[in-house]
Amino acid sequence: MSLNDTPSGERLHIALFGRRNAGKSSLINAITGQDLAVVSDIKGTTTDPVSKAMELLPLGPVVMIDTPGLDDSGTLGDLRVKKAYQVLNKSDIALLVVDSAEGFKNEDQLILDRIKAKNIPYIIVYNKCDLIPEPGKSDDHTIYVSSTAKTNINELKELIAHSVKPEGEIKRVVGDLIKEDDIIVLVVPIDKAAPKGRLILPQQQTIRDILDSQATAVVCQNTTLEKTLKNLGKKPVMVITDSQVFDQVSKIVPADIPLTSFSILFARYKGNLALAVQGVASLKNLKDGDTVLIAEGCTHHRQCNDIGSVKIPNWILKNTGKKINFEFSSGTEFPAELSKYALVVHCGGCMLNEREMKFRLRCAQDEGVPITNYGILIAYVTGILKRSVALFPDIAALLD
Fold first, then answer.
1. Least enclosed by CB within 10 Å: which of 45, 89, 204, 228?
2. pLDDT of residue 88 exceeding 90
3. Per the domain annotation, does 283 fall within a domain?
4. Which among 237, 265, 293 is the end of a domain?
5. Do 190 and 221 form a contact (C-beta atoms < 8 A)?
6. 290: which strand partners?
7. Of 53, 54, 67, which is closest to residue 22 (Cα–Cα)?
8. Are residues 143 and 285 in the same domain?
9. Three-class SS state of 77
10. What is the number of structural domains in the chain?
11. Taking 70 as the threshold, does the pLDDT of residue 35 lie above it?
């Protein structure tokens, strides 16, 4: 993916489910018009979920996800099926692919029940319709296609687009808080943890949202922030900082200038800011021997003084004065059971789509486990949480 591509977390996720040899991989190739997935008559060719980012008209940027067959068997087969079910957590729409010649089976009903339980839009795609004498009738949730003969493939694309209805007004990272000609200062530390030659995704998306609002983004490091504010000649409407330098930045930015962080903005953008603010209060209830989960939505090389594995645990230990145990997860490996944890601290989730981020939040809610995120925790332990959410009066009121 190039630097100009739409991030995976902002793409529509289209996942294909079904039994082995239902034709999921060949259907992906037919939909995309490319040989993206390996096709074989051998059952179990797809052994792990495979994702491909692409442009798909009339939808635009999407991620297509091919999953293992749901009727796989044996120890490895069971693990593959489990992986396939996990894909539901990030699916914006599910295509249940059924072999027309074999018909709808028990495994198909099981996955359909899960899809419906999660309120995921779905289409039952009866593939290989060229192998039966009289295909059935299509409707809003059912279509008969042939990936080899290319029958009804364009109609399927249109049905997918029709099934994914926009949910009201388009969400903004910060655009709804600013107006044309406003100046927003972004504080971006360049240290060992910063990726070489580029900005991290939340910083990129925030800058773009500011530009889309016809406002001005001024980007500086924490070491030059004081000089930058003096040289502006006009008071910025807000300062947005990397959470790791929250304490330093809060001492520099005058009290009459709103201050928040990228992490807090993303908790609002694709998560639940109120839940995260309420969750951080559980820090004061931690006891010796409690276990805290530090969860990240992406996988990256851990560096010296890494924020997730080093800084966050140290802040928690210092704030609580307790002997806390820490466990860590990254990427798609979010624990299925959370009841053992006294607190979950999640990253901003910039690499996750909104559905998966909210799924993780619901998992914690369902098990009664407090959950917060990096930026909110850092603001809390540095004593500036109320200031950092003052832009959102309803959220700030939760701290009264």
1. 204
2. no
3. yes
4. 265
5. yes
6. none
7. 67
8. no
9. helix
10. 3
11. no
- Structural contact between residues 350 and 237, judged by C-beta atoms closer than 8 angstroms: no
- 158-165: long-range contacts (C-beta < 8 A, 24 or more apart)? 158/58, 159/123, 160/14, 160/59, 160/93, 160/95, 160/123, 161/58, 161/59, 163/93, 163/121, 163/122, 163/123, 164/12, 164/59, 164/92, 164/93, 164/121, 165/121
In this predicted model, what pLDDT tens digit does every residue of 365-393 receive, in sequence order?
Answer: 889 999 999 999 999 999 999 999 999 99
DSSP 267-321: HHHHS-HHHHHHHHGGGGG--TT-EEEEE-SS-----TT-IIIIIHHHHHHHHH-
Residue 42 pLDDT > 50, yes or no? no
Ramachandran area for residue 23 (φ above 0: left; ψ -120 to 50: alpha; else beta): left
CA 55 to each of CA 46, 52, 67, 88, 151: distance values in angstroms, whole numbers, following the listed order: 22, 10, 20, 21, 21
* Same domain flag for 24 and 156: yes
Same domain, 100 and 117: yes
Question: Do 201 and 351 contact (CB within 8 A), yes or no?
Answer: yes
At 253, the pLDDT band (50, 70, 90 cuts) reads very high
| Cα separation, 163 vs 151, whole angstroms | 20
Strand 60-66 versus strand 50-56 pairing type: antiparallel
Same domain for 146 and 72: yes
Q: What is the pLDDT of residue 73?
A: 62
Q: Which two tokens stand for residue 84?
A: 């396939």
pLDDT over 60 at 300, yes or no: no
Is the overall model pTM greater than 0.70, yes or no?
Answer: yes
Please indicate, yes or no, if residue 130 is contained in any of the structural domains.
yes
Q: Are 209 and 178 in contact (CB under 8 A)?
A: no
Give me the residue label for tokens 């388009």: 170
Pair of tokens at residue 55: 């442009």
**E strands in the chain:** 12-18, 50-56, 60-66, 93-99, 122-127, 142-144, 183-187, 216-220, 238-241, 259-261, 291-295, 325-329, 343-346, 371-373
| CA–CA distance, 62 with 64 (Å, rounded to integer) | 6
Whether residues 356 and 298 fall in one domain: yes
d(CA 175, CA 213): 6
